# Entry
Amino acid sequence: MASAARFKDSVVLITGAASGFGRRAAERFAGEGARLVLGDINRDGLDATAELVREAGGEAVTAVTDVASGAAVAALVETATGRFGRLDVALNNAGVAHGTIKLADSDEALMRRMFDVNVMGVFHGMKAQIPVMERQGHGVILNTASVAGVVGAPLLGAYAAAKHAVIGLTRTAAAETARKGLRINAICPAFAETPMLTDSLVKQDGTREDTIARLVQAMPMRRPGTADEIVQAMLWICSPENSFMTGQALVIDGGLTAV
# Structure
């Protein structure tokens, strides 16, 4: 049975903490006893998340962090170790998406943007986190990928390419560090109702209701996921009870890849 305080006194770092999965993960990890180090490029959203955590009795430190910058991500990890002396769990969650566009119509700037944030953000994170965790002899890293990282994603080619790369980085790092006591996995959500969905697709393609209805047509459940559903899986992946899982890309997609 899962403990209500699985992460008591654990130090948990989360990027992309200003909204969506990152914000909800901060609330849930704090609710299970974790001490949080939160990063995001959005200062206002980051502060709002930290306030939610503190109002609930949790502890959080924040730093404005552009994950496309290796120095900024390394500084965030140093904030964790400087404040708390260790780093137990890291969620490399920050990411961006784009509106629908055919691959042949995409430009180099779009592809570079997807890789600078979604891929390099994960790379910078693991590059800074792994040495700390190896010295400790333990640690868990969870990278946010996407169902678009395991299947083709028509009209989302640049995003899909970046998320495939995240899974490749995850599996490689897991194989390299398993004997050092680390577990490194990826989570691959399908469409979920977060600001990323609204900002990248709905604003471009029409009303919220019409866009979501179109996106979920291929999903057997015929609905998007919720942040709570995805974060519940994040908690399980990172929990001490899940001690034999590493190098996996866990798909949570309402049945999308089952058909």
In short: The chain has one domain: 11-191+226-253. The chain has a mean pLDDT of 93.
